[in-house]
Structures are given as structure tokens and as C-alpha cells.
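User: Here's a structure from my thesis project, written as C-alpha cells. My advisor, Dr. K., wants to see whether a designed sequence matches the one we expressed. Can you design one independently, without my sequence as a hint?
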């Protein structure tokens, strides 16, 4: 299975995990997210999103959803980041959620990176 994944993704390395929770947890750990980190995520999500953040030792911080899509509201996200920055609170990561067949607005999420 791993070899097939390598071929399909045209990557040098791949790993197969047992669940989405494990994948999120590994993604956070591989980006050095841990104790003392604040991770922003959507309030409209399965428990696995918050659990993976907590498993990594970080703290989840929930951003409300866009009423049209149910996904993370990028305007509220930007306001929250600005407000946290003004209070000298560092945001370590953002974990967006694709919900009900609708992807998060990644062009907005990645705009200022």
C-alpha cells in the first residue's frame, strides 16, 4: 500500500496511518507543535481535530464558522489573529477543516503567508 501511495503521489516518502486523528496528530508533531502552542481551528468540526491538537500538547482555539459554508470564517480568523497579536499571544498553527464536501477557503487562508 505504501509503495502505491509513493507512486501515486510522486513523493520520496510516505506513511500510512490508521485514522484522520493520527494524521492530524502527526502533522502537528512534525511541525513542532506542542506544549505552550496555540492552534486555531474551526468550531464546526469533528472531535478529532481538537483531540489531535490536545494530544500534541497544544491548546485549541476555536474560530466560528462562515454561515454560508460552515467552514472557518476567514474574516473572524484574521480578526482573531490580529487581536491575539495585539495581546502578544503567538499563534503557532491553523488547522482548517473541510466540511460537508466544501473545502475551506484556502486562497484566503494562505493569502498572508
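Assistant: Designed independently from the structure alone:
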Amino acid at each position: 500500500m505504501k509503495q502505491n501511495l509513493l507512486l501515486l503521489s510522486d513523493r520520496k516518502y510516505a506513511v500510512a496511518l490508521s485514522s484522520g486523528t493520527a494524521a492530524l496528530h502527526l502533522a502537528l508533531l512534525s511541525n513542532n507543535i506542542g506544549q505552550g502552542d496555540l492552534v486555531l481551528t474551526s468550531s464546526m468540526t469533528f472531535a478529532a481535530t481538537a483531540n489531535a491538537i490536545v494530544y500534541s500538547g497544544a491548546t485549541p482555539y476555536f474560530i466560528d464558522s462562515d454561515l454560508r459554508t460552515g467552514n472557518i470564517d476567514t474574516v473572524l480568523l484574521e480578526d482573531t489573529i490580529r487581536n491575539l497579536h495585539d495581546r502578544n499571544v503567538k499563534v503557532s498553527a491553523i488547522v482548517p477543516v473541510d466540511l460537508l464536501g466544501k473545502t475551506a477557503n484556502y486562497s484566503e487562508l494562505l493569502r498572508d503567508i
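When you compare it with your expressed construct, this may help: The radius of gyration is 15 Å.
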